[in-house]
Design brief:
The protein is α/β, with parallel strands linked by helices. The protein has seven helices and six strands.
Length: 189
């Protein structure tokens, strides 16, 4: 565990799963990496890797015919993340809208997860998608659509983080405090 984190992680430990989500360009991967390295032992489950496993017949996940494909892939990723909680603290990094959260939670085999949506301003997300290097996704219109879906989703606002100017390390500290006080905890009602 990195110095400075010990006192913040009092109520979050091995066996817990944190879902870091949001639209493309929200900062999920940077924050997830920082968060996972703050715990020992820990695992980082990248949702994009599960989508990349499809080699033939892949349907772009934002298209309506992709619903079944998305469900199966999200369930597979959730099952892996849930299973890893038997060994360590787990961070799931991926686009997982609240509309898929019950499916994801069921597939983890857990009774609850910590769920947080990074939602900086749309302009920030668009600029990050436009300027990032080495990333396979660059569709600005889809970014805009996904952003609007997250912004308009039905979910308690305590799960949202709207911090446009924070560095990933600062966001990680903010998230860690929220994990410690239970702010992001999600379980079916």
């Amino acid at each position: 565990m990195r110095p400075g984190f010990a006192q913040l992680h009092l109520n979050v430990a091995m066996g817990e799963l944190v879902v870091v989500t949001g639209p493309p360009g929200a900062g999920k991967s940077s924050v997830s990496e920082q968060l996972a390295t703050g715990f020992t032992p820990s695992a980082l489950v990248a949702g994009d890797v599960f989508f990349a496993m499809m080699k033939q017949g892949y349907i772009l996940p934002w298209l309506p015919p992709a619903r079944r494909q998305n469900s199966v892939i999200i369930e597979a990723a959730a099952a892996a993340a849930g299973r890893l909680t038997e060994l360590c603290f787990v961070v799931y990094d991926g686009v997982l809208g609240p509309w898929f959260l019950p499916t994801f939670l069921r597939a983890t085999g857990l009774s609850q997860v910590h769920y947080l949506i990074l939602l900086p301003p749309l302009e920030v997300c668009l600029e990050r998608v436009r300027t990032r290097v080495g990333h396979g996704f660059a569709d600005l219109s889809v970014t805009r659509d996904m952003y609007e879906q997250f912004r308009d989703a039905t979910i308690d606002t305590r799960h949202m983080i709207n911090e446009p100017d924070h560095h990933p390390a600062q966001l990680t500290e903010l998230i860690t405090r929220g994990l410690d006080d239970g702010r992001f905890r999600y379980s079916p009602s």
